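Can anyone check this?
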Amino acid sequence: MSNYLEAAKQVYEEAANNPQKGLCCTTTPVWQLPELQVPSKMLEMNYGCGSTVNPRDLSHNPTVLYVGVGGGMELLQFAYFCRRPGAVIGVDPVVRMLDVCAENLEEAERSNNWFKKDFIDLRNGDALELPIENETIDVAAQNCLFNIFKKEELEQALSEMYRVLKPHGRLVLSDPTSEDFMSENLRNDDRLRALCLSGALPLQQYIDMITAIGFGTVEIRARRPYRVLAPGQYDTDSLIFIESVEICAIKDPMPDDGPCVFTGKHAIYFGAEEYFDDKKGHTLLQNQPLAVCDKTAKALQNLNRNDIYITESTYFYDGGGCC
């Protein structure tokens, strides 16, 4: 095992034995749902940088895979929508983390009348070699885990998620990203990488790695401030700003002209006609915003019309629109 992966296992074994509230510290509020009581220890062990739980991914009683179980909070949240034995599979390489997670789930069963711990199947395993059969998962998720991996391992982890997902299945990711220069000294600091700080990639590079695996549709659902690495505190000559990004990658067939990546752009037609049809499957109603992928936005811009307005990326896309 690589030194940095061994360092990550040590960090999270320590976190399992002694919960560390500030280890990741998500900037996303914890879901408040009817009859959902999250045990306090789960909240203390909320080691993600965002959220991977979205109700619109969880219709029709899906089978969910969550990699890197932490204290079990997101497993419990997924189970809220998938109330059947084995509906949610949690995989983690740290045996102690699995044991503590199981204890937390027993507490959750005592405080939630609707919840049964057998809704969740905990398995010892690795993101690089998932103990899951091919095409058996509807929704796969990871929170602040993949940024720990270096390029080769990240490609393998994404490939494993792609392998286990059913066609049109969804991979929901939450990871730190950064557009600022990160020195090799920082990137090669095993502990900082394990702490979800120095493995942050530029967003476009992260998206490119996802689409290179074969995911035909990518949604950027949220982009929030996360951390700052400052000179004098870290090995850097300039301030490094890190964001938390939430992404959904869908195992759709890859279009001939490349993936559909939604970053929150919209097209607005304001011409004299009732609507505009680009003859490529996109109909713009008069003065009605239509969410479009970046590829479609560029194609519409290239038409050089003076009656179509294309917005900038918001990096908050929540469904609907073209493609």
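Reply from J.R.: I decoded it. The two ends are 41 Å apart (CA to CA).
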